[in-house]
Amino acid sequence: MNRRTARASIAAALIAVLGLAVVPAVTVQAAPGTDSCVNNQLRQVTAAGHAQPLTGSVPVVFIHGILSTAAMWDGSSVGSIAGQAARMRGATAWTFDYGPENLDWVTNPAIGPAFATAIACLAQNSGHKVVIVAHSMGGLATQFAVGQPDPYGGMVADHVAEVITIGTPYLGSMLLSAFQALRTGARWIYPEQYRVAAEAILSACAGVTSGICGLLNVLPSQIGTALELHSTAIRDLPPWPTGLPVYDIAGDIKLIQLVAGPLSGSLDLGDIPVLTDSATAHETTGKAFEVSCGTETLWNLVHGNPGPCYHVNLPSDPDVIQTVLTSIRARINDALLPQWTAATVAPGPITSVSCSGQFCVAVGAGGAVGNRHGYALTYSGGAWAKPIPLGTGNNYTVSCPRAGYCVAVTDTGYAYTLQNNIWSGAKNIYPAANVQPSSTDAVEDISCASPSFCVAVTAEGKALTWNGTSWSAPQAIGLPGIQPPVFPGEFSYVSISCTTAAFCLAGTDIDAFNAPSAIWNGTQWSATPPGPMKGAFWHVSCANSAFCMVSGGYHAVGDISSIWDGAGWSGLAQPANEGPALGFSQASCPKTGFCVAVDGGASFNGSTADRRNGGIFTWSNGTWNGPELPDAKGDLDTISCSTSGLCVAADSSGNIFVNPYGGVTIQSQTQSPGTACPDSVQLLSAWNSAPAAIRQSWVAPQVTGFTDIGCWHGWVVAVPTTVSPGNGDVVFSQVGSLHLITVTELQQQFRSAVCAASDAPAGWRNPPLISCN
Fold this sequence. Notes:
It is a single chain. The chain has 3 domains: 3-172 and 230-252 and 275-292 and 311-335, Rossmann fold (3-Layer(aba) Sandwich); 343-663, YVTN repeat-like/Quinoprotein amine dehydrogenase (Methylamine Dehydrogenase, Chain H, 7 Propeller), CATH 2.130.10; 680-764, no CATH class. Helix content is 17%, strand content 31%. The chain has 14 helices and 41 strands. The longest helix has 19 residues, at 318-336.
């Protein structure tokens, strides 16, 4: 971060004080459809040098605080919040600049009123509501703006999807108020510790004009009064509109070694200018995010680096960046992904669903435990058929390797086959599980790679294989330690996913709180290296032998997942700020790098009052997005997504939620005849072999792999997985040998080939990759 030096004016002094970033503004040619909104205050942030069209996008607009400019968002950096937002599929990123008026209050026509006009224009021209990211007083400017009428007969708030504030002084600044009281001699009505802290800071600031000491320079100004705690200016702002989501982010620093005597010890200063309770005073999402940096000495606050929790440093903190991006992704999903359509289709719980193409089967069982009877229902042609009764059994699972063909099994050891729209009678495939209620070695899961290859697994780690005509005898999978159970009477849940007759991954959730798993290679089972799930492995879904996701969790750890890449396990991943979620029930991965998962709900920050019901999450670009909340009446227990783009989730009350996922490309890799499409490992090797200058022209450093790999006539387009998610596509060439192309090749050879061919992937023709217009 570049910093200005102090000058002998209030504005220059506070700029130096707050450590504002000053980087050259990014000037670009506006994309089609944006001219009516762009002016000297509202500018688009580019993605890889290209301005994406506003029409059809979700606009994300960033607004700064006092004595700052839009340059603080550093849109030219791929690692900044604005830079990463600009690279998100489906989004356009914008900055709003009121730098020349940054000493004035938000009612200045160039601040709040102008921002209101910008918001309404972006929404009107994009067709979607706007996401606002506001720092410091930018949040109060937003409060003013959303309370204004728009030019179209409504209110500006109607055009806003969510407001994300970072260090916004909703109640004003305690430290600024203390400084003012000491300067004017006004009666002090707030906790004495803060007056003492202000005196200590004043003493330490002798001869210092940088850092927190610069707050002293703003005291005589208009905003020096307007931003006092509970000021009249703040009270006179329009009230926040009811129902508008506001997500607050705050810093948390504690000052130690105040003074000797009864007031010694530590004092919560928030991000220093803004206390935590002021920065989170209008949180409406139930999950305010606080960045805690522990304790600091007065000397370090004044003379050193106050760290990432400091007011001006918050927007650059990696945790804050990730939190903001997660919220932005969720709003993009809300706007661009088709909503989940709910229907009650079954008389009781649905325990398993499986989809192939646009065809699905859901199974479940109703009745008293020990006397339950199963049912199955099919989805075809966009509608659900009436349930078909099956036999007895407490728990049913199903797998459909192709449309119209499915195999279902019960915990009590029976199998049913659907073919030509007719279910077979029950076949006793595992007599050891016939006892009702279920024996300890119940049949628990099934996965079919084809109509001639299915594997069912039992609670004690045995596999039964279907070859299209008959079932094999049980074979031990070899899950270390699965027998005996950890606790008397308790057995693990075993899950399996098969992609071919030569690859299955099976695993369980109990083995002295480890999660053993094993792989079938077509001839035998072999144990995998230990994974990180530790007793929380509830389900596995594989897109292929190099991409399997295990998912699970429980209240103490929340929703967690890990990925098997063919050689080892990734670290744990989970949705941001989800609190003590109940764990993923299932995940479904129709292709490499893309999964959809369901969970049983969560409470935020440990608060049961803010508890949500079951949610639906998407895994893409190496991170979890969501939750989408489909208003489930029971626990969300199962989900299945097909490679043609259909996803179906179900809950414990017989409700089905269908989403065609038209906003997400779930397609097979396309390639030239005879040319194999490279996998993530091969692309990563080509990436690492490329000159550093070429790599740096594409994305941020530390690429760890690639997802969403597509191939066409010797060209390869993939999305990099990085430590800073949000980067766009990267292009390789297979001509000669697999290699990363240059930006010149992108705009010349690649663009010429793609734009000239009618069969080129449609998604390759548009920004931010290239433009064929």
